[in-house]
């Protein structure tokens, strides 16, 4: 059976993890990689057995052997890079956050549909077996009526204005890098909130370092969410029902187990999945299945899901008065 040939642009830490998992996924191979540095591209290609290495993204666009391109550049470049790939006729998997704002995401999706190409946001936790298992337990009523979600993602990152994670001009900060995960979990289980309240603390350069969010939903459910680049937490997540609850073991966004409790706390049931933490395999499997079946988007994480998530992220940013400035513009140079 024909292998799916991948291109990768943006060769930082996430791309290295992705390439490692890609090489371990049946039916895939790395056709080409691209960086703004030929030296970096050559090193990456040698490490991960890519067939070609390019010193510019534009040069990679000329390789028509590629079936799909994975975009692992900073958030600030997702819109520009996705549009370039789609215009060149390539299917795209774009790392989360999908874009800087919903307006950009809408244009990306319109272009993919115009070109009849596959497009998906790389929100890899959506395909994690432990999270899927917890979701199915809730769907099957095993904790009764759903009442709420509590989730965080917190770790200490020493402030350095030159680092991408602290650079607002690259879309850095707590919200788009790690806050997106608890927001995603609340969306997965509860949908879009009808009311939200968010508060943030900032690094000296105005990048958000701590974020606390309270979401309210149509049927009275609530979500209590937070993210931080200042302090550490075990990163457990809890799904609450009126007949029990589920704890997704930390770090929950890469969990390999969850525990379901009855409301009297008797006989907890733990389910383990033997998955490797931080594995992109399940996301890659979904993309491969979509491509082989001729689907232009995933049913498990649809383009509408990405639009909904971007809408919530935009609302949080409005609440905390966070603006990314020039990188929010949607016009391409």
From TrEMBL:
<dbReference type="GO" id="GO:0016491">
    <property type="term" value="F:oxidoreductase activity"/>
</dbReference>
<dbReference type="Pfam" id="PF01408">
    <property type="entry name" value="GFO_IDH_MocA"/>
</dbReference>
<feature type="domain" description="Gfo/Idh/MocA-like oxidoreductase N-terminal">
    <location>
        <begin position="4"/>
        <end position="122"/>
    </location>
</feature>
<dbReference type="InterPro" id="IPR055170">
    <property type="entry name" value="GFO_IDH_MocA-like_dom"/>
</dbReference>
<keyword id="KW-0560">Oxidoreductase</keyword>
<comment type="similarity">
    <text>Belongs to the Gfo/Idh/MocA family.</text>
</comment>
<dbReference type="InterPro" id="IPR036291">
    <property type="entry name" value="NAD(P)-bd_dom_sf"/>
</dbReference>
<dbReference type="InterPro" id="IPR000683">
    <property type="entry name" value="Gfo/Idh/MocA-like_OxRdtase_N"/>
</dbReference>
<dbReference type="Pfam" id="PF22725">
    <property type="entry name" value="GFO_IDH_MocA_C3"/>
</dbReference>
<dbReference type="InterPro" id="IPR050984">
    <property type="entry name" value="Gfo/Idh/MocA_domain"/>
</dbReference>
<dbReference type="GO" id="GO:0000166">
    <property type="term" value="F:nucleotide binding"/>
</dbReference>
<feature type="domain" description="GFO/IDH/MocA-like oxidoreductase">
    <location>
        <begin position="138"/>
        <end position="247"/>
    </location>
</feature>
<protein>
    <submittedName>
        <fullName>Oxidoreductase</fullName>
    </submittedName>
</protein>
